[in-house]
Amino acid sequence: MKITVTGTGYVGLVTGVCLAEIGHDVICYDIDEPKVQMMKQGISPIYEPGLDELMRKNMEQGRLFFTADEEMAYGQADIIYIAVGTPEKEDGSADLTYVEEAALAISRYVRKRAIVVIKSTVPVGTNDRIQRMIHEHKAAEADITVVSNPEFLREGSAIYDMFHGDRIVIGANDPEAATVIADINKPFGIPIIHTDIRSAEMIKYAANAFLATKISFINEIANICEKVGANIDDVAYGIGQDHRIGPHFLKAGIGYGGSCFPKDTKALVQLAGNLQYQFDLLEAVIHVNNKQQLLLYTKAKELFGSLAGKKVAVLGLSFKPNTDDIREAASLVFIHQLLGDQAQVTVYDPIAMEKAKAILGDQVVYASSAAEALCGQEIAFIATEWEEIKALPFSLYVEQMKEPVIFDGRNCYDIKEAERFPLTYISIGRRPIVQAPSMEGSRG
User: Fold this and answer.
1) Strands, E assignment, 33-156
2) DSSP letters of 413-436?
3) pTM for the complete prediction?
4) Is the C or the N end of the chain the one with fewer CB within 10 Å?
């Protein structure tokens, strides 16, 4: 079968490359001609570990192609995956413009039996609406069925997740179409769950909302731990050993970000509101996360009083390690607050610097290394737990900084290790270490 994947963002490109890797012939289509030309050269437009190598391998073996030509993409396709973006509207709902444009393009060019697989994260009912839209605009001889196949990929480990995922969800009202998509995915060797279309759509939103809830919950517990003198690391480990709870997504920090959790939680709240249902729990999750993203800034204000003129280093800009994605990143939230307070900000990230420049411009200084970012600084914020940053010794902070005061938003370090150095180390949900000899003089 000939497979086309529409959209070459994180989901579409990884999906297309991995489908080619298991033996399918795949065309990846995108409207962005320069982006397509870049991919034709074997260069991925996104940072995802291992993706460039896998792209080039499958291109060389004649299974993977890229095009900006709609007719080439859709004219002979048997299976068409829609993996375009569904950005957030001002009211929090999902913008389906790109999904609808893809559906209309498919209607123009498909003249035979084909299955459209919606991979994009879309509100419940969207697949049915796209099916109706295609039916209204398709050629008489075309027979097109829509199937829901939501993605569960994590940025930074998306290729691993394609081959080692927990489940593949296929939602379809046509059993034959569901069987075809299941057969396509069989080489992955991952359990397949068959549902109706609307249940598949809801599974995606419910999964992300539940994970976001776990993150906000453990962050609230961390904030209480600080007040009662408990250690959130021990608490998270203790509750995570309960198999009903599990250890995942119980890492305290400065909240979730990225392209999925913020957008999908808001979209689910909006969906519920459209149905006259108040999703109180998820609204609280969003509120907690918004507050948590400012926690390092709040702690710094409490310690120093004023941050005007302070020399501040921010280590890590992406919303999580192993990605250059800075969408909804906590780092940007508190950097804007620091700039508003007239702090002098220097930033460093192993991968995301170029994307940060597009947002922060010349408001901050860009360092070429963590050591350079720390040189002469009075405050250091850790916003992303890159392995490179976690490996930095406390001695480097002491040697490089004018005043070694560290606010660790990801609990990268052992507080017992921090006690061995003349510095101030403040993390999340754990007791502060205040040992810098001149700290009292720097307050206010």
Assistant:
1) 64-67, 79-82, 113-118, 143-148
2) S-HHHHTTSSSEEE-SSS--EE--
3) 0.93
4) C
28 is catalytic: no
At 330, give phi and psi (nearest 5°): -60, -30
Q: Are 165 and 14 in contact (CB under 8 A)?
A: no
Length of the chain: 444
Q: What is the pLDDT of residues 93-152, one digit of tens each?
A: 899 999 999 999 999 999 999 999 999 999 999 999 999 999 999 999 999 999 999 999
- Residue 51 in contact with residue 162, Cβ under 8 Å? no
Supply 179's token pair. 């069987």
Q: Are 58 and 20 in contact (CB under 8 A)?
A: yes
Per-residue model confidence as pLDDT tens digits over 40-58: 999 999 999 999 999 999 9
For residue 404, the 8-state DSSP code is -
DSSP 103: H
The catalytically annotated residue of 18, 28, 260, 412 is 260
Q: Which two tokens stand for residue 307?
A: 């941050």
The CA distance from 114 to 74, in Å, is 10
Q: Are 26 and 51 in contact (CB under 8 A)?
A: no
Interatomic CA distance for residues 343 and 340, integer angstroms:
8
Q: Measure the CA–CA gap between 90 and 137, rounded to whole angstroms.
A: 29
The Cα 155–Cα 11 span in angstroms is 9
Is 267:88 a contact under the CB 8 Å cutoff? yes
Please tell me the distance from the alpha carbon of residue 146 to that of residue 313, in angstroms, as a whole number: 49
Q: Among 384, 351, 383, 345, which Cα is nearest to 365's?
A: 345
